[in-house]
Sequence to fold (477 residues):
Amino acid sequence: MGSILQAPSVKQSVIVVGSGLAGLSAASELVARNVPVVILERQAKPGGNSIKASSGINGVPTRFQPPGLDSLQHFLDDTINSVSSSVMSTMTETRRSLISTLTSSSASAINWLVDEKGVDLSRVAQLGGHSHARTHRGAGQTPPGASIITTLLSQLKANPLVELQINTTVTKVLTSQGEVIGVESQQGGNVQTLHGPVVFATGGFAGDSTGALTRYRPDLHGYPSTNEALPGSQDLLSEIGAQLLDMDQVQVHPTGFIDPKDPSKTTKFLAAEALRGEGGILLRRGKRFVDELQTRKVVTEAITAQPPSTTEGTKQWDIVLLLDEKTYQSTKSHVDFYLWKGLMQKKTISELDHSDVVLETLEQYSDIVQGKETDALGRKSFGNWALREPKPDTVVYVGNVTPVVHYTMGGVLFTPDAEVLDADGKAIDGLWVAGEITGGIHGANRLGGSSLLECVVFGRIAGRNAARYVETTSDKR
Ligand SMILES: Cc1cc2nc3c(=O)[nH]c(=O)nc-3n(C[C@H](O)[C@H](O)[C@H](O)COP(=O)(O)OP(=O)(O)OC[C@H]3O[C@@H](n4cnc5c(N)ncnc54)[C@H](O)[C@@H]3O)c2cc1C
Fold:
């Protein structure tokens, strides 16, 4: 059964597709300009993958950073390095303008969240690939994704200009004479047509392991993911002429937890990078095999160099992440959660598989940490590792991990004004995009903390421009 709905309001409503950080940032800017919003979300629980973000959001310069060290130029340079020179050599001007908007708007993104929305982002950390500490999170236990999303969502839900429809999947973008005029969606068995300008913020396709991921990266077919196992929605925009860019650029994270209760589950919890940074080591059949502090790419390649142990169609590897007592203490808030979830276990060395080999590995590793030997694998920094004399009854903390598809850098080609470009390089009227659905910012590698940032920066731009569009088109009526 079909129905045509028009949100009752003086001003035309803007349709925001997706309730992750990009969609909620756009919606917040729209209602701040008195423009009504209908948010369409296919899942029962709003927040998308954004709500899972655990490390933080980048911003430069901010009052939370150590004074005088970082600069916009450093952030710009780090981002361009991360994109890689080969990717940067194509569409260079487009990429430069997007990256420049991202970095130069980053301080105002943090200030907006902190000062206008009331989110605590007072702690900063330095993540891999960054030359300075610039990734912001709160001082408390709540991870940054959850605290940002719950704050924006509760403010939007309290606003009478906002209508949030959950369990509603957009299946088609409607156009007339080259202009986007609305969307068709499904809720249960009902088809609904909604008219209005559209902000598309549907995220990436890292969880779409048998669909878009297989199409663009057949080598990653069957990989588990940190994202929800749902289809990507990029095709809905390519169907109306949007250009796609960098679709084969996919970030694989080396360590997602294999849950012993459900080893073949396709969606996995991320084993935070901090576990290795603070001292954790990786073992294959009881032996170390890589400098654990290498980039995500190098560590992943060292793991996947050996054949996988495919479990019920999920392509995964048997790697153990091991922490000593001191490393556990320094990552307690993370690890206590993983222990509670059953993703890590507290065990003695004698209780581990290949326990004799593990004991030998740890004896040798403690000599390396004490400087008695150099590490043949090249690790030079050992975090908080303090175990000096491992014995069979020494307590360690372990979890099984495997590489997981984490983020898709490619997506819809767009402009610094969050407009979508068609094959002729012309902006499609009535449509804006933001967040992981877009391509062109991260190239070969996304810097940690820069995806929450792109959601806020381009989500806000999309919201402001959609609001302006509503004002202009209603003036003409
Ligand atoms: C475990 C984890 C940790 C992370 N940690 C960080 C971090 O610390 N810092 C950082 O910067 N980034 C981090 N990221 C990446 C970051 O969270 C995401 O890239 C970003 O949040 C994407 O936001 P988004 O709004 O574009 O998409 P999402 O948050 O994924 O939201 C998209 C929404 O659109 C909905 N949707 C999709 N298609 C349709 C459709 N057809 N109809 C209706 N609804 C639809 C989806 O259900 C979803 O709710 C992390 C990611 C994961 C998975």
